[in-house]
Design goal:
The protein starts with a helix and ends in a 5-residue tail after the last strand. The protein has eleven helices and seven strands. The relative contact order is 0.16. About 3% of the residues have low confidence. α3 packs antiparallel against α5, α7 packs across α8 and α9 packs antiparallel against α11. A seven-stranded mixed β-sheet has the order 3-2-1-4-5-7-6, with helices on both faces. α5 links the parallel β1 and β2.
């Protein structure tokens, strides 16, 4: 309970929707349809932004009749991208009620409310029946979850036989303790990184077979270099960006994240695993 409370507080942002509406209004976007491109600086809530979502989507190539569960859906950028690009039906679940409210609002503004939906819930006790989804998708979520065995077991449970789990997460790099704060945690007691070997073992123990495993650390370092260069030359934050959700410490968090990757304290991995038809 303490762990979940810390995570929920980290992403709380009670006035998130109001700040979002104010930012949109400042750009003359208070009314009318919003595009995925307009929202990408804000709602792709992970390193490398929309680029990482596009890559993972291409690996999966979902069908239009696939049902996808986005675990830790945040502001809903990836779910809306999948629905708009592939025509899939996507359900997002997130621990933060404020994120769910904002994601629902953005789904309406992008005209995707019939293809995506969001609800508040716990990734360790997913409120869905067994064998409900074709794909489970999670980006930059598991770092906040200590009980990774339960996390993967729940994903396994709600997937249909042969369903796929898509993961884009930060792992321990073996280069020493993390520097804090980082985007997912202010202190180490809310951060739980596995090593690559540990993650592979946890996935296998849960009943998954790894189909692909790609280290995206170098790509992330290049992305952070560009990101930080733009931040350094900017006189003020962009009106629409991740700082709306993360608050005034966002620059420090991203700088520490980049340093952790550069010093080998953390690595970034994109992986896809399939639910074995018989769980030994």
């Amino acid at each position: 309970m303490i762990e979940k409370t810390k995570v929920a507080d980290h992403y709380k942002g009670d006035d998130l929707l109001q700040r979002l509406r104010s930012a949109l209004q400042s750009q003359g976007l208070e009314e009318g349809a919003l595009s995925l491109e307009q929202l990408a600086p804000l709602d792709q809530f992970h390193s490398r932004g929309i680029e990482a979502t596009v890559e993972l989507g291409k690996v999966l190539a979902p069908a239009s009749d696939d049902y996808i569960l986005d675990i830790g859906s945040g502001l809903g950028g990836p779910s809306r991208y999948l629905a708009a690009t592939y025509g899939s039906n996507v359900t997002g679940i997130d621990l933060s009620e404020s994120f769910v409210t904002a994601a629902t609002y953005l789904a309406e503004r992008t005209g995707l409310e019939n293809k995506v939906s969001y609800r508040q819930g716990d990734a360790l006790a997913l409120p869905f029946d067994d064998d409900s989804f074709d794909i489970a998708w999670t980006q930059h979520v598991a770092m906040n979850i200590a009980d990774r065995t339960k996390f993967y077991a729940e994903a396994y449970r709600v997937l249909r036989p042969g369903g796929r789990l898509a993961v884009y997460d930060v792992l321990a790099g073996g280069g020493g303790s993390l520097l804090y704060p980082v985007p997912w945690a202010k202190t180490e007691d809310a951060s739980f990184l596995l090593s690559p070997d540990e993650m592979r073992t946890k996935l296998s123990d849960a009943g998954f077979e790894t189909l692909s495993w790609v280290d995206r650390t170098d790509a992330a370092l290049s992305w952070f270099s560009d990101f930080n260069r733009k931040e350094a030359t900017a006189t003020s934050p962009p009106p629409i960006g991740l700082h709306l959700a993360m608050g005034p410490d966002f620059r420090t968090m991203t700088a520490n994240f980049a340093r952790n990757l550069d010093e080998g304290r953390a690595v970034l991995v994109e992986a896809v695993a399939v639910k074995r038809r018989a769980h030994d």
